[in-house]
Design goal:
With 383 residues, the protein is an alpha/beta fold. The chain folds into two domains: 218 residues, Spore Coat Polysaccharide Biosynthesis Protein SpsA, Chain A (Alpha-Beta Complex), CATH 3.90.550; 156 residues, 2-C-methyl-D-erythritol 2,4-cyclodiphosphate synthase (60s Ribosomal Protein L30, Chain: A), CATH 3.30.1330. The protein contains eleven helices and 19 strands. The strands form five sheets. Strands 1, 4, 5, 6, 7, 10, 11 and 12 form an eight-stranded mixed beta sheet that branches. A five-stranded mixed beta sheet has the order 16-13-19-17-18. Strands 2-3 form a two-stranded antiparallel ribbon. Strand 2 and strand 3 form a beta hairpin. The protein is elongated and about 90 Å long. The two termini are 40 Å apart.
């Protein structure tokens, strides 16, 4: 048994004024990225098939994780799902979730709820109660009022055992624009549809009003905060400039390193990368690469900022402590703060730089080198 997900995202955005909603950025990430990341966070899925418009097949979504496979969508939603299902070598007992790319507020809990029920049922759909009175209308006249107690709204992700999808998606010719979800196809083929509780926040973006509502919901969500720690140490040697926080400090020795050996920038960079779960400085800028020989660490810090922002985070605060017996750092601290704040495009109040000695103890106390600790706090970008 394997778990798979199919995410149809081949729409042209006709009802959103020609804007492809799956690529609209909300809170620093596209709607599609938010959906895929939620599925990735569950760690359940062996493959995630994303169905994109033919002209967008080179989209960077596939770089998020090796499990993501991109296939061409179709003119109809059902065609996109067909292509996605065909990309899977399905076995009868495999479990597959199909989810609208236009529902970026899907929760891990809902995904898990559908999967859990799918282990015992052939088809599972999440549903929500209808709040409005439902009337059947013909030519602007009410024909009758329907019994709301027996009606529900269906959502995605919808779950299917492998043998069901293999049967309902045998022929593309059987599909049409009248098929608005996969459960309808399964129902037509005689499969029983089991329901689980949906989520009222799991909104689908179709119009501009829907998009605004999703943005408002995201603003109300608890801000996600991430914290990372960084540490750097370098040996003191003769005939090297001492550069800390982008400031050249007069001293008889400087720090040895492949770059300019700026321990403050290095520690802050590692803290930022750690908070964003992006590895470490050496991974992105290896000291074996000649192009980084003697490079300014302020430039590296600027590059780290771009990586963090691309991951969807803003910097909230940075605290750091320099450990050195000499020289005194106090005369240069404000200049360092200015350099770091300008590089990271934040207010100086977001940057804290402290300094201490180790009272003659250890390699810093004996003036063999200097060290720096840093802690970075990031917040998820919502706008």
């Amino acid at each position: 048994m394997s778990f798979y997900a199919v995410i149809p995202a081949g729409g042209k955005g006709l009802r959103l004024g020609g804007i492809k909603k799956q690529f609209v950025k909300v809170g620093g990430k596209t709607i599609l990225e938010r959906v895929v990341e939620t599925f990735l966070e569950t760690s359940f899925f062996e493959k995630i098939i994303v169905c994109l418009p033919a002209e967008n097949l080179n989209h960077s979504i596939s770089s998020l994780h090796p499990s993501i496979n991109v296939v061409a969508g179709g003119a109809l939603r059902s065609y996109s799902v067909f292509n996605g299902v065909q990309a899977l070598n399905l076995k009868d007992d495999d479990l597959v979730l199909i989810h609208d790319a236009a529902r970026p507020l899907v929760s891990r809990e809902l995904i898990e709820r559908v999967l859990h029920a799918l282990k015992k049922n052939e088809v599972v759909v999440p549903v929500v109660a209808l709040a409005d009175t439902i009337k059947e209308v013909e030519e602007n006249k009410v024909i009758k009022t329907l019994d709301r107690s027996r009606l529900v709204g269906t959502q995605t992700p919808q779950g299917f055992q492998g043998h069901v999808l293999k049967k309902i998606y045998q022929k593309k010719e059987d599909l049409s624009d009248q098929i608005t979800d996969e459960a309808f196809l399964a129902e037509k083929k005689g499969f029983a549809i089991y329901t689980v509780a949906g989520d009222n926040i799991n909104l689908k973006i179709t119009t501009e009003a829907d998009l605004n509502q999703v943005v408002n919901q995201m603003e109300e969500k608890k801000v996600i905060t991430k914290t990372g720690i960084g540490y750097d140490v370098h040996r003191l040697v003769d005939d090297r400039p001492l550069i800390i926080g982008g400031v050249t400090i007069p001293h008889k020795q400087g720090l040895l390193g492949h770059s300019d050996a700026d321990i403050l920038c290095h520690a802050i960079s590692d803290a930022l990368l750690g908070a964003a779960a992006l590895g470490d400085l050496g991974q992105h800028f290896p000291d074996t690469d000649p192009k980084y020989k003697g490079v300014s660490s302020i430039q590296l810090l600027k590059a780290v900022l771009a990586l963090v922002r691309n991951k969807g985070f803003d910097i909230s605060h940075i605290d750091s402590v320099l450990i050195a017996e000499e020289p005194k750092m106090a005369p240069y601290r404000e200049q360092m703060r200015t350099h770091i704040a300008k590089t990271l495009e934040v207010n100086e109040n977001c940057i804290s730089i402290k300094a201490t000695t180790e009272e003659g103890l250890g390699f810093t106390g004996t003036k063999q080198g200097m060290a720096c600790w840093a802690i970075a706090t990031l917040v998820e970008k919502l706008l």
